[in-house]
Amino acid sequence: MAPVGGTAVQDHVALAEIELCGELIIAASEAEDRLSLESIDEVLRVAEERE
Predict the structure, then answer these.
(1) What is the pLDDT of residues 8-20, one digit of tens each?
(2) What is the pTM of this model?
(3) Integer CA distances (angstroms), 13 to 17, 26, 29, 31, 40, in order
(4) Are the beta carbons of 15 and 22 closer than 8 angstroms?
């Protein structure tokens, strides 16, 4: 059983990864076909990280 109180630990990297996975799932569900690598990079904002 988890302790009661404010002892929850947040892993910000894991939360960011979960958010990006969710965005990929949404994009894939809205696409008519498989996502291209360019589309995946756009969803994951890869180009923004490179700049």
Answers:
(1) 667 888 898 999 9
(2) 0.66
(3) 6, 20, 24, 27, 19
(4) no
> Residue 8 carries which DSSP code?
-
Within the chain, residue ranges assigned H as helices are 12-30, 37-43, 46-50
Domain ranges of the chain: 12-50
Most distant pair of Cα atoms in the chain: their distance: 46
What length does the chain have? 51
Task: Output the CA–CA distances (angstroms, integers) from residue 2 to 5, 6, 14, 18, in the order listed.
Answer: 9, 11, 20, 22
Say if residue 35's pLDDT is above 70.
yes
Residue 19 confidence (pLDDT): 94
